């Protein structure tokens, strides 16, 4: 089946907001095995929107529109789509009651007349309840085509798609689509792709699709079959083969699990405590970790020692080390980690110090140079990195690699025992 996306909103054309909905929907449609050849962005203009919908419906089996379902006059998506599809708008008592209930339980108690515009639906359309807003989702079916309307705010669109639209689209498919995700850290995208080149070249069903993330590589394995059990049976040997090839670099096969969650799970399992000592990342590493529920059981302290004075005062980095080697050096990183573990009484301390830029670099120590160290079990492991990109990318790369370093040190110590 062929699907097409239409994102509605003049603010998207002007670049006032980033179109995250299109990226999300495209990924989910690919997961469903739907073919996508076109995406469009159109402003809040009746004539141009109608033309875009007609074109999309003429060449695709499913058209998904996001945005333009609000209560204001420039919210035209429902009205225009209904007109193109030949549907009359009628008031839906169920949706009206839901809007009343929504306002009753919100801080905005007064319902203005234009809110009732959202209770009008194309007669005969499937209404999808919006559990996070007032605009319902809508599905119009005609002549073998499906036109799906979704609200624009991501906090409304995403749960609606997950709970209602994804199952609807899956049922339209002649085959069940299943997938698994293998998440890898500590290896580069080009290396991973080289290691699975033979699998990709010979793939039919299931297929493997690599996705590069900052400091990580994700591999999605997707299979088509008559039922879910058969699809999972096809996926299982591929995941096993990837485990054989990448071993401990695979930190999870749970699609929803993040690297920091995997680290926290490992710390909990081993009953280890962790401290972070950060310079160029300014607390980003601690922030990633403290996003994980239950981390308080293992996370002792986060130290942000941005200045040399802070490094000396809080982490007891030697004055001569900072003078002779500099704040950005392997020796400073080592002292930050070793002393951080001792001072806070943690089993592990990971440190990060570097030059994030855009200024401050030299020929000897360029922007992107980062040292990190991990102190664990009376041993300090130090690594040197040369990251590319703007300041935010250098800092983000530093955080991911620091998390990976903690994991590597724990697993390496386990392997010795």
Radius of gyration: 26 Å
CATH fold topology of the largest domain: Molybdenum Cofactor Biosythetic Enzyme, Chain A
Q: Report the structural category.
A: alpha/beta
Query: Helix count?
Result: 15
Strand order within the widest sheet? 2-1-3-8-7-6
Query: Termini distance?
Result: 53 Å
What is the CATH architecture annotation of the largest domain?
3-Layer(aba) Sandwich
Task: Note the main sheet.
Answer: 6 strands, mixed
Uncertain residue ranges? none
Mean pLDDT, as a whole number? 95
Strand fraction equals: 25-35%
Q: Give the tally of β-strands.
A: 17
Note the overall shape. Answer: elongated
How many domains, in number, for the residues? 3
Which percent bin holds the helix content? 40-55%
Organism: Murimonas intestini
Domain MoaB/Mog: 4-172
InterPro entries: CinA, CinA-like_C, CinA_C, CinA_KH, Competence-induced_CinA, MoaB/Mog-like_dom_sf, MoaB/Mog_dom
Family: Belongs to the CinA family.
Could you please describe the fold and organization of this structure?
- With 417 residues, the chain is of the alpha/beta class.
- The protein has three domains: 171 residues, Molybdenum Cofactor Biosythetic Enzyme, Chain A (3-Layer(aba) Sandwich), CATH 3.40.980; 77 residues, Alpha-Beta Plaits; 158 residues, Maf protein (Alpha-Beta Complex).
- 42% of the residues lie in helices and 25% in strands.
- It has a six-stranded mixed β-sheet with strand order 2-1-3-8-7-6, sandwiched between helices.
- Strand 13, helix 11 and strand 14 form a beta-alpha-beta unit.
- InterPro entries: CinA (IPR050101), CinA-like_C (IPR036653), CinA_C (IPR008136), CinA_KH (IPR041424), Competence-induced_CinA (IPR008135), MoaB/Mog-like_dom_sf (IPR036425), MoaB/Mog_dom (IPR001453).
